[in-house]
Amino acid sequence: MMPLISILSCTIFFFQFLNAVADITLTGCHLEAGLQVCTTLGGQATTFQVPITSYNEITLTKTSPTTETSTTTGIPNTTEPPSSTQISGSTTTPQTDAVTACHLHGDTQYCVNGAGAEVRIIASSTPTPIPTAYTGCHYHGSELHCLDPSGSEVKAVSSEATAPAVGKKGGHSGGKNCHFHAGVEHCTSTDGSEERDCGRVDRDYNVNLRIGLLFVILITSAIGVFTPILLSRLLRIKPTGLIFTFIKQFGTGVIISTAFVHLLTHAELMFANTCLGELKYEATATSIAVAGTFMAFLVDFTSHRLAHWRQSKIVPSTYDEKCTQHESDDSTDNPPDLAAFSHHNHSIPHGALSSSAISLIILEAGIVFHSLLIGITLVVAGDSVFITLFVVIIFHQMFEGLALGARIAATNSDKVISAKLFILPLIFSFITPIGMAIGIGVLQNFNGNNPSTIIALGTLNAFSAGILIWVGFIEMWAGDWVHGDLAEADMTRTLVGMVSLIAGFILMGVLGKWA
């Protein structure tokens, strides 16, 4: 009887021992090509063909020495920190302060979180070499953020969320409002929240079409800027006539609207880009615009002072010369007449023309900076919106060309070298096509959400806005209506100027919806 009891006791003890060691826990589980891949205690990777949504751990339980079944515990993938999970009668608390086993699927990096679920890593820039793990994970609301080895913050999102695949083409998504800034599509969902992925997205680019339309932009810009000059030269249209008044004031409205609606607004959107991070100084864009305004004022003020200084030096010497010639002439005792003096004195109009030329150069600088950006951002926009943007920019270039050409024609004089009249128009005509050529050159590498790109585009937009604000308000608007010929113009000319000014505001404001 005793041997039988001993045998039964040993058998019971043996089966209890088997139950104690039969729980084999697999860790580091993640999805690869739709299959669940886990790591055993020995470090060997094991693949399971099971329906996967999102799993915490997989536990294999041996019910007998010869029979093996698998039991899986699925944990829904949520954005809240995971809680303790009961698995095979034991309680475990998955770590949530790191994501590990990082690997690439194409160009997208995936890691495994503490719950064993695969997550996608979103970073503003990918460090080199690519990290195999991210630590210091924490939650911002419902979003999980971790730190790479350099201390930069990345976002870890569920692998089930929409992710850009290799070679994925950008386009409009249903139920979203999408628009482009700096060639990058920004989409907001129906609830108004903006969706942003800072990685580069491949788009459809018809390069041959872009090269062909480059010359269309060139011709359109040239027509816009040279039309007022040719009208003034060939048809002898007076700068104070109704036609020129309409063109000039329409151009004034275009320039001022461009400064605020296009440049300053886009600069603020650039610096508000989430891929740049939160700015410590919220008024960055407007401060840069103020700097641009001050620089334009400084150049304008200095040029006027130099012109008056040259005038004060030349006028007395010219008058003394005429007096000396008069004293040596015994035929008359009269002083040199005013007509003779004014005929030989070219310094006054020359000084005035020099000041006007400087004002034109300032205006040209503000236009050139943002026209270059227009060319680049037009080209890097995807084919889905390229034609729409192209049509908008055609009108944009035509209107700006008319504004610049009217100002050049208004300062026309026989004392101005004709060649100089064509330098500024030619620069304007070619600058946007040059920007398009640059855009074509960087087409396959351009990422408008790259922080350095955001800073460069935002700074140039804001600075150009400041320049055009000074020129538009001081030189053009106040220069014509407060200090110029429109201050005492007749009612007809005043109404024409006012209507055309408002038309310039409205038309460029409408174009601001697309560009």
Automatic annotation (TrEMBL):
Gene Ontology molecular-function annotations: zinc ion transmembrane transporter activity
Top-level division of the source organism's lineage: Eukaryota
Listed transmembrane segments: 211-231, 243-264, 284-303, 357-380, 386-409, 421-442, 454-474, 495-514
Residues of the signal peptide: 1-22
Composition bias type Polar residues, residue spans: 83-94
Region named Disordered: 61-94
InterPro entries: ZIP
GO CC list: plasma membrane
Principal localisation: membrane
Keyword Zinc attributed: no
UniProt membrane topology term: Multi-pass membrane protein
Subcellular location as annotated: Membrane
Keyword Chloroplast annotated: no
Keywords: Membrane, Signal, Transmembrane, Transmembrane helix
A Pfam family assignment: Zip
Compositionally biased residues, Low complexity: 61-82
Official protein name in the record: Uncharacterized protein
Source organism per UniProt: Blumeria hordei
